[in-house]
Amino acid sequence: MKYYARLIRIEVKSSIVEVEASSPEEASVLAADAALNLAPDDWVDMAREGEYAPVVDAAIPEDEFDGMLPSAVWPRTAFALLRADLESMQGQLLAQPWMFSLDGLAQADLADDWVEEVHELREKGVAAWTTSTGGDPLQRLGALVLRRQRPA
Where are the domains of the chain? Predict the structure, then answer.
């Protein structure tokens, strides 16, 4: 059977803008405002080749696809952004405007799905770290704390 698949490729671009501000918070707001006026050529690719894989958004059988307008066939898709500082290993969710157009129940439902997948990633990371360091990290941490609390 023949299928048509919609692929999505994420592009990460950056730009530097100069703003006059009295605080980092104010500078962030002014920079976000300035971004609205930047030309496409003001943005440069930030991601290295292979850092972001294409996403298969949907696969539709040929018999459902024939004769339909693309907007009627493909699901409406939006993306959440998770920011990772690879130096400090700090992360955050960067809320997008579309998120605020959803009702509270839809926001909660999506967040539950994301939390579940992020939790699985965390568990895999902990398991890999535990295996690579040889032992239960909580036991190792507990032993370290006890050693530091003993008098010399």
Answer: 1-77, 78-152
